[in-house]
Fold each of these.
Amino acid sequence: MASLGANWMLNDKMAIGAALFGNGGMNTDYPKPIFGDPNSPDAGVNLEQMFFGVTYSIKLSETQALGITGLFAWQRFAAKGLGMFGAMGMSSDPADLSGNRHSISTGFGFRIGYQGRLLPYLAIGASYQLKTSMSAFDKYKGLFAEHGKFDIPSTWNVGFAFDATKDFTIAVDVQQILYSGVKAIANPIDPMALPPAFPDGQGGFVPNPKHVPLGTDNGSGFGWDDILIYKLGLLYKVQDWTLMAGYSYGNNPIKGSEVLFNILAPAVIQQHITFGITRKINKSNELSVAFMYAPSNSVSGTNVFEAPNQQTIEIEMSQFQIEVGYAFSCK
C-alpha cells in the first residue's frame, strides 16, 4: 500500500506536514460457501482504510517538540457469502447484509504527539490518537453493530530511544489498540440472541425473547479484545548506510469462542520481524528497502451454532511485506 509525505518549515521553530498513508485492512476470499449461502459460490470480506493527515508541530525548546495532526479517514468494505444469516432471520436488514458492492465510509479524527530528549543519549516519544468516528457503511447496515458503523479505534504509544554509541541506537515501544471502544469489532457473538425463534419440540417455533439481530446497537460482532504490543528496534549507521532491525509481540485479540465470525477476519498474528536498509545517495536524497515477516499463528474453537464439540474451527494467518521508499528534500 503506497504512502506519501511532505514537510515544510514555517520558521526555525514551527513546521507543517502532510501525509497520505494506509491504515491496513483485511481481505479474505474463500472459494466455497462456508456459511451456507446458496446465492454465493464463495465467501469473504474486503476492508481498506486510508488516512490523510495534516500536522502542525512546534519546538518547545532545543530538546522538546509537540505536534497535533488532523486526520481525514476513508474506508471501504464489501462482504459476500453471508446471506444465510439474513434468510434465518438473524439480521435486522437482510438486504444490506451481504453480496452488495463496496460501501464507502468517511470520518475525522485527531492525533497528538510529544518528543523530547531527557538526556544527551536518551529520548522519549508519546502519542495518542482519538477514536475516529466514521459514517456508516450503508450497504452493510444489517451486518455491523450500530447499523453499519465501523469506527477506527483509539491508540496510544510510548517509546524510548537509547543511543548506545553515536552510530548505534536501541529503541523500545509499547502500543495499545483499544478495540473495546468500537461495537462492531468488540461485541462478542451471542448464539442465543441471534436466532429469532427456537423449536418448541412439537414441530413449531416459539419467539426468542432475547433476540438481538445483526446490525442492531448490541448486535454480535467479532469479539476482539484490546491488545498491547511491545516493540524492540535496532539502528546502526555505517557511513552512508543505515541498517535497521525490529521485533514486536502483541497479545491475540481473538478468543477461541469467537472463531466463527473471525473466519472472515483471522487477525491472529502475534509477532512481526522486520529488517531494513537505507542508502544516503547525497545530501538531499536517500533510498530505503524494508522487509517484514509475521510468523504463522492460529486459534481454534468450537462452532457456537453446533452441539458442543461437534465441530472445531481453526483460523490461521501469516504475512510478509516488502517496502521500497525514496526520500528527497527541495531547498
Amino acid sequence: CHTHQATPIESVVKKIESHHWCRCFSFFIYFIYLFDLSMVYKIISISIYIAGSTGKGTTLDMSSDVDLVIFFSCFSSFQDQVEKREHVIKEIEKNLNRCIQTIAFKVDISPPRKKGTRSLQLHIQAKKKKELVEVDLLPAYDALGQITFSYVPPTKIYTELIEANGQPGEFNTSFTELQRNFVKRCPAKLKDLLRLVKHWYKEIKSFKLPPKFALELLTIYAWEEGTGKEQFNTAEGFCTVMKLITQYQHLCLYWTKYYNLDNSQVGLHVKGKLKESRPVIIDPADPTANVAKANMGAWDLLAQKASDCLTQPCCMKDEQPIEPWNVQVVCICHFLSNRQLKKKIHNF
C-alpha cells in the first residue's frame, strides 16, 4: 500500500484508465485469421471477443496484456475443442508467420511451451510506438451462440460442460461473454474500485499471487453485500476488500446468476466445489472453476500485504482506521437436499 501513502485514494483512481489502443489489435488479428484461415484451411471463425480486464472495462493504463477469444465453427462440442484445438493453434501460427511482414506492427510469436497448450501467445508492438502488448489468442467452442446482455444459458449447457469432464475451468473461454457481462453490469464507480484493487495487487510485484479474477469477484461481492449503491465511499470499499483478503481462510463465495442449482447434476457439482479447501470463489459463469485456487503461500502473502495496507495512511482518516462495510463471510455448510443449500453466516 506504500504507493498510496501520499496520495488520496480518489485521486489514484483518476489516474487509472483503460487502454483504448489495445482494442485495435482485435481487428488486426481478426482480419488476418478470418480471411486466410477460412480460405486456405477451411477453419471458419464465428466471432472474436476481447476477454480479461480489457473486455470487462477494468484494465489499467499500465497494463500490457490482452486476451482474445476466437470462436471457431470447427468446434462442435467441448470435447471437440480438446481434440482439435492444438491443430487450430498451429494453423493460426503458420498463417501469422506468413503475414507479419506485411503489416504495420512488429509481431513476435512465442511457440507453445508444451503439448496441449490452450493458447498462442504474441508480443505486438506498433512500429511507431514504444508500448509492447502481450496477446493471448484462445480458440474456443461457441457454446452460447449469439447472446444478449441479460442472457441466461439453458441448464443443458452446464450439464454438457460437467459431462465433458475437463480440468476445472478448462472451458471457461466458452463463457467469456458471461464473465464480461457479469463485470460490465457494475456501476462506473465500482469499476474504479476494481481498478484500484488491481493497481494495489500489481504493486506487490510477485509472481506468487492468487488470480486477479479472484480479486475482481471478491471486490464485487464486497460491494454487493456492503452497499449495492452506485455512489459509495471508495476508501471504505477498498478497506473492506483488504479486510476480506485477510480473512481468506473463511471465504466461500458463489453466484447463481447464470447456472441453476435446482438442477441435481449442476447442484451436486457445485456442492463438491464448495467442499474444497478455502478460499473458494466459484466463477459465476463457469461452475467448474474455483478461481481462488492457488498455493496457500500466495494467499498468505496477499493477506500479509493487505494487513499491512490497512495500517497505512490510505486506510486511515483522522489517524483512525477507516471503518469497512458490514460484510459477512459466507460459509456453505451442506445441502439440505439436492435442490437446496443451507447457508451459515459468520460475522465479518
